[in-house]
Fold:
Amino acid sequence: MYKTNKFVQWILLVVVVLYIISGLGITRYQIIEPLTFGLLTKALAFKMHSWLLIPFLILIIMHIFPAIKRKSKKEKKK
Structure:
């Protein structure tokens, strides 16, 4: 369980960073496009930002669920 949790945390970190960068690529494309050497255009950033929403939500749930489960077990013991 611990290794799975760590894996989810690292993947969530990557998705959050990509989500932020793609969001900046939409709003501040004049800065982000030269920084990525033209690889992250405004159109690509918009697509990426749209596609990352579902994985982001799934990973957030997977990240929070074990803590909720542990808390409910502790309350049942009382």
Observations:
- The CA atoms of residues 67 and 73 lie 10 Å apart.
- Residues 42-77 form the longest helix (36 residues).
- The helical segments are 2-27, 29-35, 42-77.
- DSSP finds three helices and no strands in the chain.
